[in-house]
Design goal:
alpha/beta, Rossmann fold, 2 domains, 9-stranded mixed beta sheet, P-loop_NTPase
Length: 376
């Protein structure tokens, strides 16, 4: 399935090419201003597409980059194919988009057959940073070419990382685990936001009781060096009264983009079908479950279970061994800790390993233990 944001000059050629490869689920053509390109990408983010084909001339360069960053927050795994007619390495807009993980860059003269160029790209596997690296340079005032943020891209996940936390059943500690993950990432010096999309929201009252400070951006409150966006029924009545497919996360895209967060943690509540689908929009999906045999039925309802990293809270050793015999399951043990904001770091670091910066994965755990002790 494909989403298209194109200029009129190339729209018809690209549409014909894409329809031979799959279904077009979002299509907008025009040369837009700042508000227009932002709204277009926000609308595209609400559609479950496999790839977004984006014309670089559809909006002003800096505004296009900011809008793509917001799209990346919502759809971090979608392949973005950038049409860049007439652009050459050193172009600031293309370099910025490559920095957001846009590696499929199609360039060429304006008069080329862009339908054919897109068809060739769709027949290839998605590009990697190695193929896009020549675009990730900017010409400085002296005329010398400089690689932009190359070290950062090689050592840490590109763009905003989203982590979804869901529970196999109610009361197992989904919110507790989401808070623990957020606090852990904040202790490592990252800019973190926690978004509450649970069926049984509790954060609004909790933040009021502890008198949390104002967050970095509108609608956010701040605790332990990270921002929390509590569920607020009055702002998303569609979630309550509509078809149930709207989430706070989608409503908050402008604020999440403005906050420039490195990690966004989503507390999804109990993993029903739509929340499981939301979890797989993220870079990492965590399922909080019980290891007790009489709760194994909760796991049978989750499909596909193997796509989650399974977090078992304070399980018995024997039960952990039995669950780990199930093929393809990725099982992690979370210790019981009454305060999620001070949970030990070792287990959380292992659970989050795929989305942690490489440089920090090599660090000793001793400083993390010292940080944890300061929570007491």
């Amino acid at each position: 399935m494909y989403a298209l944001i194109l200029t009129p000059a190339r729209a018809e050629q690209v549409r014909k090419a894409v329809k031979e490869h799959g279904e077009v689920v979002f299509d907008q053509a025009g040369t837009m201003d700042s508000l227009g390109i932002r709204n277009a990408l926000q609308s595209a983010a609400r559609v479950a597409a496999d790839a977004l084909i984006l014309d670089i001339d559809a909006g002003p360069g800096p505004d296009l980059v900011a809008a793509v960053q917001g799209y990346r927050i919502s759809r971090p795994t979608v392949r973005v194919i950038l049409l860049a007619p007439g652009r050459e390495p050193g172009d600031a807009t293309v370099a910025s988009l490559v920095g957001l993980g846009v590696y499929d860059v199609i360039s060429g003269p304006f008069r080329d057959d862009w339908g054919d160029l897109v068809a060739q790209a769709l027949n290839r596997v998605p590009a990697t940073y190695a193929q896009a690296a020549r675009w990730h340079i900017m010409t400085g005032l002296t005329g010398e070419e400089q690689v932009k943020e190359k070290v950062v891209i090689e050592q840490r996940p590109v763009g905003v990382v989203t982590i979804a936390v869901a529970g196999a059943a109610s009361g197992l500690g989904c919110t507790h685990t989401a808070l623990a993950i957020s606090a852990f990432l904040a202790r490592q010096g990252h800019n973190v936001a926690l978004v509450e999309d649970s069926q049984e929201p509790v954060m609004k009252d909790y933040l009021k009781i502890i008198k949390a400070d104002a967050g970095r951006v509108n609608k956010a409150r701040r605790i332990k060096r990270f921002d929390v966006f509590p569920f607020a029924k009055t702002e998303v009545d569609k979630f309550i009264e509509g078809d149930g497919n709207n989430f706070i996360f989608d409503e908050l895209l402008p604020e999440l983009s403005a906050g420039r967060y490195e990690y966004i943690v989503r507390d999804l509540g109990v993993a029903d079908k739509k929340r499981t689908r939301e979890a797989f929009r993220s870079n990492l999906a965590v399922l909080v479950a019980s290891a007790a045999r009489w709760r194994w039925g909760d796991l049978l309802k989750i499909e596909p279970l193997a796509s989650f990293r399974l977090a078992l809270v304070a399980p018995a050793e024997r039960e952990v061994r039995e669950i780990r015999r199930i093929p393809e399951l990725k099982v992690y043990v979370m210790p019981h800790h009454p305060d999620p904001l001070c949970m030990p770091d070792e287990e959380l670091a292992e659970l989050l390993r795929p989305v942690l910066p490489q440089a920090k994965k090599k660090s000793s755990f001793w400083p993390w233990k010292r940080l944890w002790s300061n929570c007491d």
